[in-house]
Input
Amino acid sequence: MTEAHPTPSPYQELLKRLRNAFPSPVSDPVHDGYVVFSLLRALDQVDSLKSDAPIVGSPREPDYAFALAQRLAESPRTVESVIPELVNCLQGMLIWGHPRSQVNVVSFPSIPSIIGVVLPSMYNPNLCSDETGRGFSEAEVRVASIVSDLVGYHPGEAGGVFTFGGTGTLLYGAKIGLEKAVPDCMRSGIREAAPVAILASDKSHYAVLNVAGWLGIGHDQVVTIPTRANNAIDLDAFESILRATLSRGHRVAAIVATMGTTDAFGVDDLGAMHAVRERCVEEFQLRYRPHLHADAVIGWAWTVFNDYDYQRNPLGFRGRSLRAIAAVQKHVRHLSLADSIGIDFHKTGFAPYVSSMLLIRDRADFQRLVRDRESMPYLYHSGEYHPGMFTLETTRGAAGTMSSLANLLLLGKDGFRALLGHAVEMAELLRELVAARPELTVVNEENYGPVTLFRAYPEGVDTFSIRDQELHDPDRAAQVATHNDLNRRIYGLVHREALNGKGVAIGFTENYRQTASGVPLVAMKSYVLSPFADQDQMKTVIDHVLAARSAVLSGQA
Ligand SMILES: *Cc1c(COP(=O)(O)O)cnc(C)c1O
Output
């Protein structure tokens, strides 16, 4: 027999307190208020760290000595005392969406996309199966359908899964391609005498190498194909290398078309690559079709312009911007020719990390990844959708799915067009300003995205011809290195000033392209994605770069 009113044990007392640290599982509007208020408390603390500078708080280096000394405490703490510890992690963090921030290809998440992270965090769906994912599983299919239609796939045949980043989308693409080239290697492993290759341009993302390594294909089997001045794959080289690879009897697990390179926004001619693939399948009488994967993690968003009326130009973009948009869209509109496509909402889709989806033209291809081949996993009937049977991940959270859905609903085609068009418009403006200055030159002249790579030079350098001389003259190693150093120092100065509230934080690339002399060409980078960027900031970039250039050249910095 238990006592009627036993004194609560210490653990029960503790439990009672700890329950307050959780949202209420049953209706309790008062406690919901506490949940929201705790969030508000955190935001309020972040707010007090904001200034004119594009950074939270002040610049600081991570303190790893402090981090290494951390241990689990004996006693619990209050919600209120944990919040400042979490907020403190934002100290020194760049604010990507700040009007004075043009650092890299990182999204500034919209409000609905943030709610898209909060809701699954509270209710914890698992996209492994619709038994555990419910409406969130439906949301994943919904996003896949919307984006399939956008890229030109047939939503009734296509399929899509969210995964752990752009790298994950490439892994899926290459794995499906590997199964086509080496049938059933999921079960029996790669036991071919001849190597299996992956082909990609020399400006493709290093994730291609990672994927080749992790799939057991090997870094050495990644065949890199030269790019042209526009940072797109050299089609003649692609064709001859693909032929040579097949002639040697090697299998091709994947051909990767990069639709928007990471630094320069080079876009491969996917249509032409597809035609080359088709020709080779025919001529070599291949028993499989080498898988064509479009790494469109950056460029996918430009598909919203596929049916834009360029003649009427209802959104009123400047002629220059319109041309720039059309130049990218010209290749992106062929995305439906790819067998699979990698899409990052966290790059050009205004969603938080990690929001990456692998889209596949024919969802029956997922069948190649199923562990138990007898089962048919890819049905959309209620209670029968189990992507966990073919995904690499077992548990998959729904944050990426939900924030992507949120932005698709929020923005529609015109919303994306306005945000991306604005970014391109700002980049074009910067290019005009650079062109007007004899001290500066744009290096990714032939690319037309939101990113501008540019270099500054000392007095007396002809900035009309210097870029091509530096790229192609094998005897200029010393000169390129000297100019690289100048640009590195200008960038350092501009960046430091920006973090202290003066000017704009820009980015830098250590290897825009390899030059004929063997020294990589570095460049300053302006990556505009913030909806809050405006003309004034583009002028500020130039002013600060020129001032820093003078300071460095005169030895004052
Ligand atoms: C960023 C990027 C990747 C890798 O994507 P993550 O989301 O960072 O894993 C792959 N390809 C290209 C072209 C990229 O720019």
Notes: Residues 439 and 460 are 9 Å apart (CA to CA).
